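Here comes an entry:

___
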Amino acid sequence: MTEKKANHQKQSNILYDAIALGVPFKVLLSDYVDVDVDVLMENLYKLASSLYEDGEYEKAGQFFGILCLLDYNEPKFSIGAGACMQELKKYMEANFCYTHATMLDADDPKPAFHAGECCLAINDTRGAIICYDFVVKSKNKDPHSKELRKQATHILKVLKKAESSKD
């Protein structure tokens, strides 16, 4: 084996081991490129957000997906990907993204609220009840979270009433 090939094999093994241990690609990337990875990712996030705001949900979703791969520990990337999937009516995929964001930051009720919307879109009433119940029980005190809790409380009442009338 040539020295170059041996070096590539060694680097591949290091990368494989790091990924297996759960090291985010962002961290790995910073070892191999000569750019500020945080600045690069923030610029990618701005681009994805801009595309989303312009209604380019497919393209925005691709960039949010890249960001999720690079740093799967950042909730805003999963929320962005979920929002794109929701706009594209890919509700199961959106729900997955929102659930991931909720697991990363359980204090933010926004992804659970949107997951509830996705559950309703696919007629998963029980799933929606779970999501909205999570929102109602959230402890976040910011005004947006309070408004989401208020909306979720109302939606829960309607859903539970509909559930009880089925029985």
Remarks:
- The chain has two domains: 23-91, 106-167.
- The chain has a mean pLDDT of 88.
